[in-house]
Design goal:
mainly alpha, globular, single chain, Rna Polymerase Sigma Factor, Chain: A
Length: 189
């Protein structure tokens, strides 16, 4: 998809073309779902959150500023919806046992079975720490930085924060995760 395709789809979707909006959904369904999954920790809840994000995007498409990146706007809708969900249910733990998401991939040429298991355990543990230890906004900032490679400016835009607030939140999040992992032998992969 080119930027021109995206702008044309947005223009047509604003005029009521559902196929054009379907093209936008197809182009962004993976990033939206992945962000929701990283924030919520549950595949089922992530699917529901992604659907809700697209419904809201469709409903408010006329308010989107065409001069800004569509992906930033859409991920902002997604992250804010997830933050609201997390705030409503405060401190509940999520199931991380569902293997159907395919969210973790090992990119080593030929790892041993023990290495694969250990990496999976580390990845699962990191996901659990993200869900349990970090606030929803900090979790969103970490996810956008490390899984989506967003800049501090893009994260600030998505989360309606200043760049310095993003840097502070990321610093605190890294410190919180490091403290949670302290004493655990998680680095021996």
């Amino acid at each position: 998809m080119t930027e021109q395709d995206e702008k044309e789809w947005i223009k047509r979707a604003r005029a009521g073309d559902q196929i054009a909006f379907g093209n936008l959904v197809s182009a962004y369904q993976s990033p939206v779902y992945n962000l929701a999954y990283r924030m919520l920790g549950s595949p089922m809840e992530a699917e529901e959150a992604a659907q809700e994000a697209f419904i809201r995007a469709y409903k408010y498409l006329n308010s989107y500023d065409i001069n800004r990146p569509f992906s930033t706007w859409l991920l902002s809708i997604t992250s804010h919806y997830c933050i609201d969900l997390l705030r409503r249910r405060r401190l509940k733990l999520f199931s991380l046992d569902d293997e159907s998401t395919g969210a973790y991939r090992i990119s080593n040429d030929s790892p041993t079975p023990e290495t694969v298991v250990r990496r999976r355990e580390l990845s699962d543990h990191m996901q659990e720490l993200l869900v349990q230890e970090l606030s929803p906004i900090d979790r969103a900032a970490v996810t956008l930085l490390y899984w989506y490679d967003h800049s501090y400016e893009e994260i600030a835009d998505v989360l309606d924060l200043t760049v310095s607030a993003v840097k502070s939140r990321l610093y605190r999040a890294r410190r919180t995760l490091a403290e949670a992992m302290e004493g655990e032998n998680l680095y021996a992969v």
